[in-house]
Amino acid sequence: MKELKAVLLALMVSIASHALADSMATADLTIVPGSSMAGLSLGPNGLQELKKLGKPYRVDRGMSQTREVWKWSRPEGRLDTFFVHTVNNGVIDAKPSDGQTIDLIRSTVARFKTSGGIGVGVGKTFDQIRKDFPDAAPVDGTPTIFDDVKRGIAFEFSSAPIGHSICIAVMVHPQGQSHIATQEQVAEVLEHGGKE
After folding, report:
1. Residue 191: how many CB atoms within 10 A of its CB?
2. Whole-angstrom distance, CA of residue 77 vs CA of residue 49
3. SS3 readout for 24-79
4. By CB distance 3.0 to 4.6 Å, which of 71, 120, 161, 169 could disulfide with 126?
5. In whole angstroms, how far apart are CA 46 and each of 12, 108, 150, 153?
6. Where residue 70 falls among pLDDT bands split at 50, 70, 90?
7. Please, what sign has the CA dihedral across residues 67, 139, 147, 97?
8. In Å, how far are 89, 106, 122, 124, 151 from 69, measured between CA atoms?
9. Bridge partners, residue 68, by sequence
10. Contact call for residues 90 and 16 (beta carbons, < 8 A)
């Protein structure tokens, strides 16, 4: 009986993951610094925006904030994740006061790109990112992430980047405010977060 439950649970997770991947396959694939990613917008209408994604794979609720992760496997065996951080509007004095503000969107999906073609994966090197985002600077204490705080976009690398290092994740946050999430923080939610 336990084995049957495990198989059914795995099947349900797989179906939900593919539904998200399918919805994103037809969605807007654009990354807009300081504004949106894949049609999901930053800002105080987070509850409405999150409905676009369906149920997350894992959720970590904290004091006045939530971290949510959607995930799915790609045919080549790579795992794609889509991470959203929200904060309760009442805490930051945003309207509607009973809503949630999305203040960070992070993705490892290679199809999502800026208007200049910058995103995750092969061909998206540190040198190319620095050309389009010359103000991106290393985040204190996190040398694997370069953040262009002014424009509202950050890039993660597997180690402190050099010229040919490949981007492994892109983050969008409000302009002038640095909000980031590392691959370790996403992994923590995947490992310890609850199901919706």
Report:
1. 9
2. 29
3. HHCCCCEEECCCEECCEECECCHHHHHCCCCCCCEEEEECCEEEEEEEEECCCCCE
4. 161
5. 25, 21, 22, 19
6. very high
7. positive
8. 20, 9, 23, 24, 24
9. 59, 84
10. no
For 48, the token pair is 């409405």
Query: What does pTM read for this prediction?
Result: 0.85
Domain that holds residue 115: 2-192
Q: What is the pLDDT of residue 180?
A: 96
Tokens matching residue 161: 């980047």
